[in-house]
Design a protein that fits this description.
The complex is a heterodimer of chains A (487) and B (462). Chain A has 487 residues and is α/β, with parallel strands linked by helices. Among the domains of chain A are: 57 residues, no CATH class; 261 residues, Aspartate Aminotransferase, domain 2. Chain A has 13 helices and 12 strands. In chain A, the strands form 3 sheets. Chain A has a 7-stranded mixed sheet, with helices on both faces. In chain A, helix 8 links the parallel strand 4 and strand 5. With 462 residues, chain B is an alpha/beta fold. In chain B, strand 9 and strand 10 form a beta hairpin. Classes of the chains: A alpha/beta (487), B alpha/beta (462). Bound molecules: pyridoxal-5'-phosphate (PLP). The site of pyridoxal-5'-phosphate has 14 residues of chain A, from helix 5. Pyridoxal-5'-phosphate (PLP) binds next to helix 5 of chain A.
Chain lengths: 487, 462
């Protein structure tokens, strides 16, 4: 394995150039001296060195295109290449967000249709495409709930948001950001929300409940209808964290189950790539009652003289915009392409196969590892424990790192928090039986290694560009940049 | 096409292992009355068919290959070198997720570390995070960070009226549950003294933009005076920047900014109808533990070799939950990598040249337009690449004429956000506008001055 890649500054040499620019074809104007900076510490590299640098870096990175990436809760499905071609059409990339609507009717049509499809798939009345990611959608949805309840319904005393103990960290963080208080609700023995505990908290201070369903254990709540009914009866609203929508496409519509508002992660369910951490897109869908509170503008249609015209429209009681412009349009193009290629039947097959793959893998994995809720049918993912009998020192972390040596990306570790030594495994529908078999076999072999040569796990990975990294040192002596000449 | 590899036989074998007869049996937890609803969606298309439809939709837009663009206002048409798309098209980068497993994510981590480094160099700040969603959300996050630095005890925010209107709106949206008192937006435009006078002991921060929304450049001296006014009250000084302007402009770190935010789209991304963009977020090191967003740090591996990890995560939602500094999780990593490639490709001389070209061309355009009867150059102040022109007719009418008759996308209609700027257009010129285009704009304005708008009847939709 090649050694560390130098940084871009380390390959810099004074006077090198990696660019060309047009000539100045107008007279120069004076730039007053006082505005001019005295230094600009950017690197100077030739194009060939720049390209080799970043290509070599890419070779130190694992992506879905290299192999199985069962990162639970993240839906690392295959990203179709046609999506990339679609999003790069010049008619989509070279348009300015503030152009006159008459000049961007194609882009607005795509957005309008995507709004409509997402509403149809989830059963809701209205959609905004503005949020840039799931957590951004959460903030959007919770602010909408807050405004409806505090202003629309005149109940400003409702300030509590109930969040299950299995929830993703963004749910409680969103609640605080919205100026509301989190109340954590425990889960029951079957991995559902504990209804008895829930009932204790359902009073007139409750604004709503944030629920991920299927939840982060990969389980569909067995009392969902009762739960949403109880929350509504108490005057609260149901927020749906749609991170796990991949399990529900064509299987059920969240709006029919009693959710009032929900975000969708286009970068999970609708096959848009995760980009090494982003960009994503987090559209929010909601009921008729919440629609006037959506951030805007959203795309609407008008008909004049037999022509359909797409227009921007600000919802009447909008919480306001949540970012500049209209949302991550490039990501929307990819999701649109995906939906149009799959159609209704295809989407249902996605969910069916995602759930089939997860249950199959669960059946294989639970022969070797504890799967605390493995007595239930899971949905699109399941949570195993990195505990191996006869190898008590070995932790989930060690197993995860050893999986790298077998050519797999590790599952999500140590989440959800309610399962000790959690390994959260989401295979997605785009993996074949062979891949799942190979992964289960690797896990079996690792369990065996754990008993016979635990050091192999403790010091894993052995086959990666670097060995295990010292995260404690990184946090204790933070080095967050390296610019020669800067402190 | 569903991208599902398994065949019916394989599925049958898998069902046997699970111990159920058919796939439908896996969904017994879903309430029966709501199971398997029909979805009313268009029929599935082949790749050829969808590409044809998408091409039609894309071609229904007037794109910048076919029209001359003088529109900026927060989204800019700067040149994107070919290397940028080549790098971010590497699927090792774009099909990965957040580098939670550093050993197999060194590529993304080092690229983001280099992005952070170059943003620090550009802004002369101590620390930059690895991205927020865009300039607007970065601005809102900066205000929240200032609130947190003051332990939420100070509730007043001074917000300059010439911060991008959409950023200001986003600040209001983000903080609507926090009981803030946001002041300053009705202050006279460009009156830094008036803004300084609004800072008091209750103020957690002041937010200004430089160059501001109207294109005005404030000198380091003016900015430093404002910084001092803020610091005299222990308020944080937040500056919104256009990163391209920093090609030659004095960096905000040099006039004592505490937090620097901005829209990074011009660093290697096309306008693409507003997103994905890049929220730049840099700050002084004393505030690092109150900051939001992911940070990549350098460390060593078990053999002492250099490597990179996500660090200081105890600020983040996945560890701190309701006490986190922000709820952000997915960010704009790939756009940040594009910015890193752009900054490295342009380097110190290239970025400066982009800024100078934009400056000279904008000033040429402004001078020529100022000579036309009925068009007044309102930007009597130092400006970078955007300037304000008072027009002899409503901006919408002028823009319709420019587009229909000249194939030109005119400037931004400032009356939308500033009632005092009726019939005022914000024009933007970059290195992408050649002299011929600028001269055509001038000729078009001359025709308007000669009454062209009265003589044409145009069809307008939208
Ligand atoms: C259950 C759950 N909720 C919310 C989120 C946040 O979504 P995003 O990362 O798109 O902001 C995630 C993402 O990982 C998640 O798994």
């Amino acid at each position: 394995m090649r050694g560390p890649e130098p940084t871009i500054y380390e390959i810099s040499s004074p006077g090198r150039r990696g660019y060309t620019l047009p000539e100045l074809d107008v007279p120069e104007s004076d730039i007053p001296e006082e505005f001019l900076r005295d230094r600009l510490l950017l690197p100077e590299v030739a194009e060939v060195d720049l390209v080799r640098h970043f290509v070599r870096l890419s070779q130190k990175n694992f992506g879905v295109d290299l192999g199985f990436y069962p990162l639970g809760s993240c839906t690392m499905k295959y990203n179709p290449k046609v999506n990339e071609v679609a999003a790069r059409l010049p008619g989509f990339t070279k348009i300015h967000p503030l152009q006159d609507p008459a000049t961007v009717q194609g882009a607005m049509q795509l957005m309008y249709e995507l709004q409509t499809y997402l509403a149809e798939i989830t059963g809701f009345a209205a959609t905004t495409l503005q949020p840039a990611a799931g957590a951004h959608g959460e903030l959007t949805g919770v602010l909408m709930m807050r405004k409806l309840i505090h202003e629309g319904r005149g109940e400003p005393h409702r300030t509590k948001v109930l969040v299950p103990d299995s929830a993703h960290g963004t749910n409680p963080a969103t609640t605080t950001m919205s100026g509301l208080q989190v109340v954590e609700i425990p889960s029951d023995k079957r991995g559902n929300v504990d209804l008895n505990e829930l009932k204790k908290h359902l009073d007139d201070t409750v604004l709503g409940f944030m629920l991920t369903n299927p939840n982060t254990l990969g389980l569909f709540d067995e009392h969902l209808l009762e739960l949403t009914h109880l929350v509504h009866e108490a005057g609260g609203l149901m927020y749906g964290d749609g991170a796990n929508l991949n399990a529900l496409l064509g299987i059920t519509k969240p709006a029919d189950l009693g959710f009032d508002v929900m975000h969708i992660n286009l970068h999970k369910t609708f096959s848009t790539p995760h980009g090494g951490g982003g960009p994503g897109s987090g559209p929010v869908v909601c009921t008729e009652e919440l629609a006037p509170y959506l951030p805007g503008p959203i795309v609407d249609v008008e008909e004049h003289d037999d022509h359909v015209h797409y227009i921007w429209k600000m919802p009447e009681h909008s919480i306001g915009r949540v970012k500049a412009f209209w949302g991550n349009f490039g990501v929307m193009v990819k999701a649109y392409t995906y939906i149009r290629m799959l159609g209704a039947q295809g989407l249902r097959e996605v969910a069916e196969n995602a759930v089939l793959n997860a249950n199959y893998l669960q059946a294989l994995v639970k022969k070797t590892y504890p799967v605390p809720y493995g007595f239930r049918t899971c949905m699109h993912e399941f949570v195993a424990q990195g505990k191996i009998e006869g190898a008590e020192d070995v932790r989930a972390l060690d197993i995860a790192k050893r999986l790298i040596d077998y050519g797999f990306h590790p599952p999500t570790m140590y989440f959800p928090l309610i399962v000790p030594e959690a390994l959260m495994i989401e295979p997605t529908e785009t993996e074949s039986k062979q891949t799942l078999d190979a992964f289960a076999e690797a896990l079996e072999r690792i369990a065996e290694e754990a008993r016979t040569q635990p050091e192999l796990l403790k010091t894993a990975p052995h086959e990666a560009p670097v060995r295990r990294l010292d995260e404690v040192r990184a946090a204790r002596y933070p080095k967050l940049k390296d610019v020669p000449g800067m402190e | 096409m569903t991208y599902i590899p398994n065949t019916d036989d394989e599925r049958a074998a898998m069902l046997r292992v699970i111990g159920v007869d058919k796939v439908e049996d896996l969904f017994h937890d879903v309430p029966e009355a709501h199971r398997f609803p029909p979805l009313d969606l268009p029929r599935p298309l082949s790749e050829a068919e969808i590409l044809a439809e998408l091409r039609d939709m894309a071609e229904a837009n007037a794109d910048l290959d076919h029209v001359a663009c003088f529109l900026g206002a927060g989204s800019y048409h700067h040149f994107v070198p070919s290397v940028v798309d080549m790098v971010i098209s590497r699927s090792e980068f774009y099909t990965a997720y957040t580098p939670y497993q550093p050993e197999v994510s060194q590529g993304v981590l080092q690229a983001l570390f280099e992005y952070q480094s170059m943003i620090c160099a550009l802004t002369e700040m101590d620390v930059a995070n690895s991205s927020h969603y865009d300039g607007a959300t970065a601005t809102a996050e900066a205000v929240i960070m200032a609130l947190n630095v003051h332990r939420r005890r100070r509730k007043r925010v001074v917000l300059s009226p010439t911060v991008h209107p959409m950023y200001r709106e986003t600040v209001h949206t983000y903080t609507q549950g926090m009981g803030l008192n946001i002041v300053g937006e009705d202050a006279p435009l460009h009156d830094l003294k008036a803004l300084a006078d609004l800072i008091d002991e209750e103020t957690c921060c002041i937010v200004v933009q430089n160059p501001d929304f109207l294109g005005r450049m404030f000198s380091p001296k003016e900015m430093k005076a404002l910084a001092d006014a803020a610091h005299a009250h222990k308020a944080l000084f937040i500056v919104v920047v256009d990163p391209i302007s920093l090609g030659f402009m004095v960096a905000p770190g040099r006039y004592d900014a505490d937090i620097v935010v901005g829209e990074g789209q011009s660093l290697g991304s096309l306008p693409q109808f507003g997103g994905p963009y890049l929220g730049i977020f840099a700050f002084k090191k004393e505030y690092v533990r109150k900051s939001s967003g992911r940070l990549v740090g350098e460390t060593v591996d078990a053999e002492g070799k250099r490597g990179y990890v996500i660090t200081l995560s105890t600020r983040e939602q996945h560890i701190r939950r309701e006490k986190a500094t922000s709820n952000i999780c997915t960010n704009e990593a790939l756009v940040a990598i594009a910015a890193a490639v752009y900054l490295a490709a342009m380097g110190k001389s290239g970025l400066r040249r982009v800024a100078e070209l934009s400056y000279h061309k904008a000033h040429y355009a402004a001078q020529r337009i100022a000579e036309i009867d009925g068009f007044d150059l309102l930007s009597t102040w130092p400006f970078f690449k955007e300037f304000v022109v008072r027009t002899p007719a409503p901006v919408q009418e002028i823009n319709d004429y420019l587009l229909d008759e000249w194939g030109i996308l005119g400037g931004y209609d400032l009356s939308r956000d500033y009632p005092q700027l009726e019939n005022a257009m914000l024009l933007c010129v970059t290195e992408m506008n050649d002299r011929e285009e600028i001269d055509a704009l001038v000729d078009a304005f001359k025709e308007i001055a000669n009454g062209a708008l009265d003589s044409t009847v145009r069809f307008y939709v939208g």
